[in-house]
Amino acid sequence: MVNQVDLINVNIHLGEFSMKSILIKLLIAIPVIYLALLVGLWSSVNDSRPMLSLLDMLRSDSATEIINFSSDEEKSSKPKPKPNKDRNPYYGDLHVHTKHSFDAYIFGVTATPNDAYRYAKGEGIMHPMGYEMKLQEPLDFYSVTDHGFFMGMLNAWADTSTDISQKDFAKPFHDLNEIENITPESAGPRSALFSTILGGTITEPYSDFSPSVLKAWLTKNTQAALRSFDYEIHKSAWEDVAKAANEHNDPGHFTTFIGYEFTTSTNIEGGNLHRNVIFNSSKAPIRPWTRIDSINPEDLWTWQDKLRDKGVDTVSIPHNPNGSNGQMFEMETFYSDPINREYAEKRMRNEPIVEVTQVKGTSETHPLLSPDDEWADFEIMDVRVGSRPPTYSKPSGSYVREAYLNGLTLEFTKQGNPYKFGLIGSSDTHTGAGAFDESNYWSKVGILDGDPENRGSAPLTPENIQRMDDYMRAFNQPRSTVSLEQGEYANTGFTQWGASGLAAVWAEENTRDSIFKAFKRKETFATTGTRIAVRFFGGFNLSSIDLNSEMLVSQAYQNGVTMGSDLVGDGDKTPEFIVWAQRDKNGAALQRVQIIKGWIDAAGRTHEKVYDVVCSDGLQVDLITNRCPDNGAKVNINDCSITQNTGSSELKAKWIDPDFDNETKSFYYARVLENPTCRWSTWDAISRGFKPREDLHDTIQERAWSSPIWYIPPASDVDVVPLGGTVRMINLST
Question: Do residue 266 and residue 397 come from a single domain?
Fold first, then answer.
């Protein structure tokens, strides 16, 4: 079964359209072509659109052409709060899909970008299965990030009023999401459409001499060469995404960002290399840069640099490195060249943050990479995104903690560090509405996983076993069901998905500019959906700060650095760290705060260690094991009630690394753990009157991760020059 329906592993790029071959043919036929273009009489017999004139051919469709999507929509009449120099925590989601994403639409999602923003602001919207999706409390910021690739095309195929819907390949999709067709029984036929028809259709180009191919080549807009693609519809969908963001942006109260997903993968074994691209402006390109332009993320960064030169700043945010098969954080470039400082600086300039948790699992670390970390086995999705049948994803190169360590190695070998990124979470919902609450979970892909039976958390009724077999066969799943004690369960793989996560920032105010600046300086943290707040500071002059003082935060900013920063060594001084975590008022109490350290020794070997630094309930860290004692928090699996009066509402501590070496490059980040609570699959089971599946975790510990602080040893022969989130070491002796 395909666990990830948000990727079709087709490697479309310029070479696959044989542009060199086309050019040769055009040069041979240039007199004919020239005359035909002048009179506008040359058209493809398979193209139902109006004939293309010379003007049409030469009109720019450049992905660097900037337009303003600003809206005159009236904003809130409430006064804008004053900025807080000590910064506030803001929570949001930067990974949201609506009907404009091909995979969302094919599985019954008709929510618009406007619906998604209404949901983020606290309104209820409808799930394709007919129930309401609503947040416990509104979010602070949100971005609809529909797939740039094929944006808007599926609903155009389904809409019989469009010209493109009349082409043969579109007919199986007609009226796909009319109300009468959105049923659980349609999951099988929809899966077949997704697996068998869609993949072949979207890759089929026009013939070499089609005007559409010529236009694609002349304008460097390769997607225009596809038979299944209508550029005007694509631009209209992108305009809808961008304008909805601007219409709902309410500075001081609710922030939106124009965004989209760059959905790419490697040529080899389909390693996931997906990124979300977020714009800090009401301005954006006329179209998004997609995998059809290039499957190489390095080309995406080049495009981002070009936009920045035109005054439009962006960040791209890698997600699901856990499904990259070791290719998200490699020790070489996309085309297997050695990493150098130019590459490192370019990557960090454009990718200062990474999405560490979402519905498709957590990418902090893996038990095979961190065998001494008791909390490493957390919401692990170990298969490759989009693989059919599900195929194991190699852990090495796929998780952020190892990437941090590899970055130290690359610095050690003078290649630069492309992995000095901060952390966020997000949902990757494909319903327009993130399901962050374990007790109220609707998964992500519409009718495909919108009820407990389909996602495998409750046994199938007898009448649904055959239906499950039918739709799983479309995904090349060897076994559609699995027999357990309480009956037959869907073997969909959705049981590995999680109710996660949220992006969080520390910013002066709830505005685009302020929150975007937090992205760039990496003063960000990730949560699994809970609204834990975590502060993390490091410095050499923090010892005098009173942890109970109202001036704690302002003094920490003045005397140290915060998460996402470099801490440059000061002689033989030992740094001190301050960590402060506060619980989510709607979540469980806090159990412990940990600091994870990674470092590289003089021989170039990397190491990691987990330290508990503050415990709940007044308990003390064991100085030998570096662990808190058990606080006694329990979960009643029969009704998901939890032990009362255990855990803490906040945890605060100063900490000095007992193993600190001032000549050793290292990084530190905080991990905050709540008391255990029921996992979503347990909530699903008991809501249907069953015990939880015996092969799944009954409980989880919701958590938050800060971005790291990097310690850089003092050195007389180097100068440290910050370059947009990375560090370049300049040897002064040469």
Answer: yes
Q: What is the DSSP string of 490-547?
A: E--SGGG--S--EEEEEESSSSHHHHHHHHHHT-EEEESSS--EEEEEEESS-TT--T
Residue with tokens 């041979």: 28
What is d(CA 570, CA 351) in angstroms, rounded to the nearest whole number? 29
User: Are 83 and 510 within 8 A, CB to CB?
Assistant: no
Same-domain status, 70 and 210: yes
- Give helix 30-39 / helix 19-28 axis angle, nearest 10°: 90
Task: Kindly report the backbone phi and psi dihedral angles of residue 59, in degrees, each rounded to the nearest multiple of 5, phi listed first.
Answer: -65, 135
Please provide the size of the chain in residues.
734
Please work out, in degrees rounded to the nearest 5, the angle formed at the alpha carbon of residue 543 by the alpha carbons of 553 and 728.
75
> Total structural domains in the chain?
2
Q: Is residue 576 part of a domain?
A: yes
Q: Report the CATH number that the domain containing residue 626 is assigned in CATH.
A: 2.60.40
pLDDT of residue 268: 65
Q: Please identify, among 400, 425, 450, the residue that sits at the C-terminal boundary of a domain.
A: 425
Does the pLDDT value for residue 546 go beyond 50?
yes
Point out the domain boundary residue: 406, 425, 444.
425
Distance set, CA 569 to CA 413, 716, 720 (Å): 20, 11, 11
Residues 6+ away with beta carbon under 8 Å from 700: 378, 379, 438, 498, 528, 676, 677, 678, 679
Whether residue 622 contacts residue 592, with contact meaning beta carbons closer than 8 Å, is answered with: no
Distance CA 554, CA 543 (A): 14
Parent domain of 206: 14-97+198-425
pLDDT at 706 over 60: yes
In a domain, 574, yes or no: yes
DSSP classification of residue 167: S
Asked if residue 416 and residue 270 are part of one domain, the reply reads yes
319 half-sphere exposure, CB direction, 13 A CA radius: 36
Q: What confidence tens digit (pLDDT) does each residue in 390-417 have?
A: 788 999 999 999 999 999 999 999 999 9
Other beta carbons less than 10 A from residue 303's beta carbon: 22
Q: Which residues, 6+ apart, have CB-to-CB distance to 28 below 8 Å?
A: none
- Domain assignment present for residue 2? The answer is no
Residue 509 lies in a domain: no
Would you say residue 723 has pLDDT above 60? no
